[in-house]
TrEMBL record:
Pfam family, one: LPG_synthase_TM
Name listed for the protein in its UniProt record: Phosphatidylglycerol lysyltransferase
Main location: membrane
Keyword Cell membrane among record annotations: yes
Length: 352
């Protein structure tokens, strides 16, 4: 990690401490202590297990994308990818550092940088598609509750969905309407050139075109392997499913019974979309606000509500930062590229 990244990490930890202190300002310490002592730790372990499955399933997705071109890419090496992604997503605005971090970690394991970029992009496409699919299900289940109880949040949720949907459309255009996308990107980049030196703008434009070309070629190759894409989609759906279940198990740990697991899970899907709108790394502030507003009905005790929110943030955000630092410190294992002569026809690349 660079010095700038370390400072960003420290800043986010301090922001988290500040938000926690602000959230606890109206909570009696005696009530908070009693709530902690009465927690059912077995249910918390289940919630922790869901987070472990979230990381583990993403590691399996990475392995499936890489195994067609590389041997000896272990689960340990694959696990470093989502953990590094979690760390750099958590310390950069709009989670912009996650993609470069994945590419860097895969390159450390001997994966060609171009191939690593394509894997990261294809993984992102599938992830976004599953986010949109989960959102559509959550809308059916939980949007009426959201619109009736918290109508002001419904606009944020819809806006978050539109952003994710627009990303999917843009990536699909690259995959299936390549020439049009190239022309559209050139037009969109014209105003950018007004604010950059000509030489720098040319390099920037060339880099964008290179990424589009790489993604296009890789997408053509990967879309021929429908079995792998279906497997990756199922794994990603399960990955998100376990992540969305975490608030339910936290509530069970606090002694709440008779909860609708479908409703609680659906509301967490909506929180995910609200959080993505906040430019602050990790959605700090927005995530905490969304959780307390959406789950106040399910957790009537204010002290328990705040405690549930803090546990949820520790599991879904700060745990990833901590594990990401460990992953970056682990010495990478080198994978072995499969010679072109040994590759199946659908893995040898596609020429435009």
């Amino acid at each position: 990690m660079t010095r700038k990244n370390i400072w960003s990490l420290l800043a986010m930890v301090l922001v988290g401490i500040g938000i926690s202190w602000y959230s606890l300002r109206n909570v009696k310490l005696s009530n908070l202590k009693n709530d902690i002592l009465t927690l059912n730790w077995w249910w918390l372990l289940v919630a922790l297990g869901c987070m472990a499955l979230y990381f583990g399933l993403e590691a399996l997705v990475v392995q499936k994308f890489v195994r067609h071109r590389y041997r000896k890419f272990s689960f340990k090496s694959a696990l470093r990818v989502p953990l590094a992604e979690q760390l750099f997503n958590g310390i950069t605005p709009f989670s912009s550092g996650g993609q470069p971090a994945q590419i860097f970690v895969m390159a450390q394991s001997g994966i060609d940088a171009g191939r690593a970029s394509s894997v990261a992009l294809m993984k992102f496409v599938v992830f976004q598609a599953m986010v949109v699919l989960n959102f559509l299900v959550a809308m059916i289940v939980g949007f009426q509750y959201l619109a009736s109880k918290l109508s002001y949040l419904s606009l944020y949720v819809l806006f978050g969905f539109l952003i994710h949907f627009a990303v999917i459309v843009g990536l699909l255009l690259v995959m299936y309407w390549y020439q049009f996308t190239k022309r559209a990107v050139r037009i969109v980049l014209i105003p950018v050139g007004w604010f950059m030196k000509a030489e720098r703008f040319e390099r920037f434009q060339a880099n964008i075109n290179l990424k589009i070309d790489s993604f296009y070629e890789e997408s053509l190759r990967m879309t021929k392997d429908w079995r792998m894409l279906v497997e990756v989609a199922v794994l990603t759906f399960l990955q998100l499913f376990f992540y969305y279940l975490i608030p339910y198990f936290i509530m069970r740990a606090m002694g709440y019974h008779g909860l609708s697991i479908i409703m609680v899970t659906s509301l967490n899907v909506l929180i995910f979309l609200v959080t993505s709108l906040f430019p602050i790394p990790g959605g700090a502030g927005g995530a905490e606000f969304g959780f307390t507003e959406l789950f106040a009905k399910f957790i009537p005790s204010h002290s328990k509500l705040i405690l549930a929110m803090l546990i949820w943030r520790i599991l879904t955000y700060y745990l990833g930062l901590f594990l990401g630092m460990i992953a970056m410190a682990i010495r990478p294992e080198k994978a072995e590229e499969i010679p072109a002569a040994e590759l199946p026809a659908n893995a040898q690349g596609t020429k435009k």
